[in-house]
């Protein structure tokens, strides 16, 4: 079915808002085109929208109510010579043999990866920008300060850990959590996180494990009674187990 060509139509300077669809995907893209374009010129512009080669396109024209008006099969005819108006749809049928969704699968697109040595030489790159201004990782003084601060924190943490005797009673204060009493069962470095950690056996089942993390056991306790906290959260002292009066209840 051919779309009717309006007799004696002139190019004019008007434009029309069309909805563009394709046989290769389910999306519709609103686009405005000049009515002075030829069908051949329209196909070239549609290449950028649907990805199909212009030479492999067949165009169908639909009304705003999605009623088929016919085919745009005369490459020399003007778009404005067909009964187009705002809201009409141009449907592109791809005859190139492409699969549905092929032009949307970016994993099939060959990508260029610049070697690190070439990128390092580019004067307009972000890396060059940061290097010239000595920002970020290229700020040597800031990097030294961060390293020194890390060493200080590590030394402070080690000193706090050394002051926590194994087997002593303690009070654990973790920000955002209630205070908990327990017994210090482990002090030192661990396999699961860097730094110094204190393994505590709580008096109540308020912990997260039984003293083991991963494949390593650090201390013994019942399930849900064990926890690891940072040394600064632990205060050793005379903290006897609290009596909740459970034996007085009948």
Automatic annotation (TrEMBL):
The keyword Cell membrane does not apply. GO terms for molecular function: alpha-tubulin binding; microtubule plus-end binding. GO terms for cellular component: cell cortex; cytosol; microtubule plus-end; nucleus. InterPro entries: CAP-Gly_dom_sf (IPR036859), CAP-Gly_domain (IPR000938), TBCB_Ubl (IPR045172), Ubiquitin-like_dom (IPR000626), Ubiquitin-like_domsf (IPR029071). Residues 188-230 form the CAP-Gly domain. Pfam families: CAP_GLY (PF01302), Ubiquitin_2 (PF14560). GO terms for biological process: cytoplasmic microtubule organization; post-chaperonin tubulin folding pathway; tubulin complex assembly. Keywords: Chaperone, Cytoplasm. It is found in: Cytoplasm. It comes from the Eukaryota. Its main location: cytoplasm. Coiled coil: none annotated. Belongs to the TBCB family. This is Tubulin folding cofactor B.
